[in-house]
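SEQUENCE-TO-STRUCTURE ENTRY
===========================

Subject: a protein chain together with a token-level encoding of how that chain folds.

Sequence line: the amino acid chain in single-letter code, read from start to end.

Question of interest: how does this chain fold, as expressed in backbone structure tokens?
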Amino acid sequence: MDFITGDIKQLYRKFLNASMASAMVMSIYSFVDTIAVGQSEGPVGAAAMAVITPLYGVLIFLGILCGVGGSVLYGNARGEGKEEKANALLSV
């Protein structure tokens, strides 16, 4: 996979397919988990899952946001040749 000279549309489709498959698997997992909790704990358990699932999604979003943002800052510092700054960003 060549990011510099490769076909942009092909690279985009490759990453899009992987991210869509990941989102689909997580949605199916969440749905099945809610069913399992509803079967074992009843309506109260299913209601609890309905409340917790969006909060869990927000936490996952924030984790990914910080992880990707940190990796971009780290990559920029490394690209500029500022090893100390990059290491400081990694260890914070």
